[in-house]
Amino acid sequence: MNGKANKYLTNISQSLRKDMTLEEKRLWYDFFKKLPITINRQKVIGKYVVDFYCASAKIVVELDGSQHYEEKAQIKDKERDAFLSSLGLKVLRYSNYDIDKNFDGVCKDILKHINTSSVIKG
Q: Nearest 5 degrees, angle CA 1-CA 28-CA 118?
């Protein structure tokens, strides 16, 4: 999907995988790792590193910390989402607060989107 590998972004993605936030760790270990489909962490797509990527469902999951609610970050997130959407990807965004306070609801919502894409049923 990405064409030539970007070594700079690849290094960043590897570092981000080693230093996941608590919310990313929770979503990864308590939900994504248990699914019968491939989910990539900190995947390079174009000039971006996305938090989680499911190629078979064409879904990107982004977890947003408080910095994402600042005006500059919201503009960048809109540009990023538009780029990812132009590739045919559905971007799902959840706040860290959502992960902390409504983990089951977030998981059910993600699963609903994955099931809608006919990747897994059940």
A: 55
